[in-house]
Amino acid sequence: MSENKIIACKTHEVAPGQQKIVQLDRFSVGVFNVDGEFHALLNVCPHKGAALCEGPVCGTTAATDGRDFTYCKDKALVRCAWHGWEFDIKSGEFLVDPSIKAKTFAVSVEGEDVVVHL
Questions:
Q1: Pfam families of this UniProt entry (predicted)?
Q2: CA 26 to chain centre
């Protein structure tokens, strides 16, 4: 992990399934709580540069063996508000093409502090 560690917020400030956008040095960063684990994404959509982390936290649908679809990854994706591109919060991968990724940062929790490693 990077030695450039910055306290982004307190753990209680980001409830499960929610995000908080913070300014860290010159970066706007979204801090997300996915099932009690904290993750950080650069607040820039790699598609057209929109404020990615301002989009809704959501899930998506996946095909089943039959004709049905099932809802999955609830509260583990962020959807860009401009064009609807969906990214996995943990990996930064674009769902349609995993070779396209939103920038992620390593995160650690130190006591009650959520620390982002730039």
A1: Rieske (PF00355)
A2: 18
Listed residue (102, 16, 19) closest to 54, CA to CA: 19
pLDDT tens per residue, range 50-73: 999 999 999 999 888 988 889 999
- Asked whether the predicted pLDDT for residue 74 surpasses 70, the reply is yes
Q: Is 52 helix (H, G, I), strand (E, B) or coil?
A: helix
Q: What's CA 15's distance to the chain center, in Å?
A: 13
C-alpha–C-alpha distance, residues 88 and 59, integer Å: 9
Q: Residue 21 is encoded by which pair of tokens?
A: 């956008």
Say how many C-beta atoms besides its own lie within 10 A of residue 79's C-beta: 19
CA–CA distance, 108 with 87 (Å, rounded to integer): 21
Residue 88: helix, strand or coil by DSSP?
Answer: strand
